[in-house]
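Long-time lurker. I teach an intro course on protein structure, and each term I like to show students one example going from raw sequence to a predicted 3D structure in C-alpha cell notation. This year I'd like something fresh instead of my usual example. Would anyone be willing to generate the C-alpha cells for the chain below so I can use it in lecture? Attribution to the forum is fine with me.
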Amino acid sequence: MVKKKLHFPVRPTFFTGNVGYTRNMNPPSSKDIAREIFYAALKSADPYEAVKKYAGMIRRIYDEARSGRLVAAGFGKAACSMARALEDDLGDLISNGVIVTKYGHCRETFHKMRVFEAGHPVPDENGLRGTGRLVRLLQDSGRETLVVCLISGGGSALLVRPYDDIPFGDKQEITRLLLTAGSDIFELNMVRKHLSAVKGGRLAEIAYPAKVVSLILSDVIGDRLDVIASGPTSPDSATFRDALDVLEKYGLMSSAPRSIVTLFEAGARWEVPETPKEDNPAFEKVENIIIGSNKTALAAAADKSDSLGLATEIISFGISGEARIVGKELAERAKRLKGEGPPGLPACLISGGETTVKVAGKGTGGRNMELALSFAMEIDGHEGITLLSAGTDGTDGPTDAAGAVVDGRTIAGAKASGLVPLEYLEDNDSYHFFERTGDLLLTGPTGTNVMDVQIILVT
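-- Reply from a regular --
Happy to contribute to a lecture. Here you go:
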C-alpha cells in the first residue's frame, strides 16, 4: 500500500462555521481533522435538503390524485427542519400540520403548522398533547386528503399515545427501565409499539383512507421501516409475544408496571388485537421512502477523509453492543493498525451505528462519551491515535454534548489533574470526566438524526 500524504486545505469548511485554518496558523491537529470529517457527515444528513429533493414528487402525487388538501404530520428530532423544507416548497398546497420534536430542536417558525416540543428519550405530557393534536388532524382527513408524514429518529418517544387503558406513567416507567437495562433500539421499539395507539402501523390505520407519503430519515441499523420511530406507517412484524420476551430477557417481569405485563400476556394469548400486519388495507394507501441514513453520513465522511489525503476505510455500518466494550474493540483495531508501521498511514477508520449503556452508576453521560472514555483508557500512551465518537443529533444521552474527542494523551492528562478515569467509567459519569478534561464535542442540536459516527485517525 502506498503511503498517502496528509493534505491540509487552506481554509477547510466546518459545519458550525466557527473553526478554520489559514496559512498564518499552525496546521490543524488530529482532533481538528476528526471534527472536520464529522461535520462533513452532518452536512450530508441535512434533513432540509433531503426533503426538498422530494418536493416535486409530492406535488405530482397531489396533482395526480386530485387531492382536496395536503396536511403534514411530523415527529422526531429532525421534524422542524423537514417541515421547513416542506412549507418552503409546498406552502401553497398545505392546509395545516402538526410537528412534535424534542425540546430545543426547533428554531423555525411556521405559518401553517403547529409545533409541540416534548420529552426524549422518556416521553412527557407535551408529547402526549402534541400527539393528540396530530391524531385529530389525521382523523379529520378523508379519501381526498394527502398526508405527508415527516419521520425521524426520536419519534418513538415524541409520538406518544398509550394503547388501551395503559397509564401514561407506566409507559414512562417501562421506557426508563429498558434504557437503564441497556436494551437496544430494536428491543425498545418492540415494546413501545405494543404499548402504543399510534406506533407499529397504527398511525396508518388512523389516517386511512387518506393517501399517506412518509419521508423518513433513518436512525436505525439496516434502515428497517418497522423500527424507525417504531414504524407508525409501516406493517409491524413483531408480536405481543416478542415484546413479552424482551421484558423476560432483561429480568423486568417483576419490576415492570403490572398493567404492561398484563397487556402483553393477554396479547400473547391472542386476547388483544395485534398491531396491523402487511395484509391490512391501510398500507395500500401508504408510500414509505427513506430519504437519508447513517450510510449517507458515513459515505460523506469517507469522501472528506479522502480529500484530506488519508487512507480511508469504512469499517462498519452497524456498530452495536455495549459502548464500553465497543470502545475497547475499536481501540485494539487502531493499535494494530498503528503497530503495522508506516505503509497505509496516515489513515482514517470510520464506523457508524448505535451502541447501548448499562447504567449501574449515578453519573451523567451518553453512549458516545462512554465509548470514547473506554477507547481513551485502552490507547493511553499511544501517540498518533485519535477518536471522535458523537451522535449526529448533537445530544448524547441526557446531556448538551454530542460526544467526545480523545487521543493517546487524554488519560495521562486527566490523571495529572487528579482524575481517576476508571471511577468515572464505573459511575457512568463520562460527561463530567470530559467536561473536566475539555474533550467534550459541543455542537448544539444539529437538526438531524442518523445515529452515531465514530472517526479514528491513525497517524
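Some talking points for your students: The chain has two domains: 30-45+295-458, 47-161+196-238+275-292. The two ends are 15 Å apart (CA to CA).
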